[in-house]
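Two entries, shown back to back:
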Amino acid sequence: MTEKHQGSCLCGSVKFELSGDFQSFFLCHCTRCQKDTGSAHAANLFARGSTLTWLQGESDVNTYNYPNSLHAKSFCQKCGSALPTRAESIDSIVVPAGSLDSSVPMTPTAKIFVGSCASWSMNLSNIPSYDKLP
């Protein structure tokens, strides 16, 4: 049975639904993903042969394609939130895990491009953790 997943941007202008199943969930540590997330890695789910439907705000979605690469990022023009991107070359929808409002149905499959991993994001197990801003 094909699953349906809902998501939105931070400001709520854009809402979407994905009809399909996720086959993989990668934490990508490449320098491009570090730049476009402003963090240590991107967390993207891949849904091959799935259907993406913009329920609201499609005109607020913009996509940046990094020249001469497969790297692309869709985002809300109002708040900058990452949104799903159609990756036609691999017949998949790439969904940023944090854009989902429904639960993420799987744990990460793998960390990729770890050779580019930000040095500050390694060995974090001894860093204090808090439930809220200390």
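entry 2 starts here
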Amino acid sequence: MGEYSYTDGELRVNLQMKEDFNDNGYILVRGVLTPEELKVVRTSIEHPDGVTKYAVEFSDGDGKFSKMSLWNHPGNDVTGVVGKCQKVAGVMAELLGGEVYHYHTKLMMKEPHTGGKWNWHQDYGYWYQNGCLFPDMATVFIAIDPSTKSNGCLNVIKGSHKCGRVEHKKVAGQTGADVERVNQIMKFPGMELTEVEMQPGDALYFHSNLLHTSSQNLSPNRRWAFLCAYNRRSNDPVIVHHHPQYTPLEIVDNSAILSCTNNVDMEGKDFYPPEKGIRWQVLEKQNEIKDAQ
């Protein structure tokens, strides 16, 4: 249960998919991006003047590093079209039960032999701090490369979103979920550890309170993944922070991915530093004021 396929150019959300998402905290859909679409997406993300230009490194506290490019608004390039298309954003709106907006997109890059691990965490463990009062948020994790046990695939705890928000604290240089609580959750019947192996184009739609982690990439193969995060309109954050308040999202037809020829237009995407957009400037100013008080 919980595994589906994108077939005949359609992904229709049915009652079973909603039940699986609500019960397990995720659904896995095979082949959301077709081979032709993957080629277009790879051309865009691998372009030297594309999103990887804004990548930053994160240490895993154990000698390895992962790279990430993050942007707050979809923009009009191929990566933006993916984040706006029906089979990604539209499906997420149906799973969350209401209008959604683009919270941010990340390109996560674990390079061969050096890619760092990510400790157990919930996305809402971070987003709660941003003034999002409800966990009406979720992410679509799309595999760009094969994501396997050997190169650090995603591991999740099935049904763990039902536990609510777990306290997060500093763990080995990262902010992660309370390890003791995570271990207790995994002992609970039905909340087993699941290793989510994926082929390029597969997508995992998962709830913001789902506990997940990934190990280091010690293999000779890279592991890149494209993650689109969404928030419900009704959950508009109550404080200004480094991700957007409610911003209307125009959901486009899936055909827009192949028809888009815009690979390197980064205007309006508002990247995580080093290129600092207006929201980062606002946040920094707020922090300066707090430090001065």
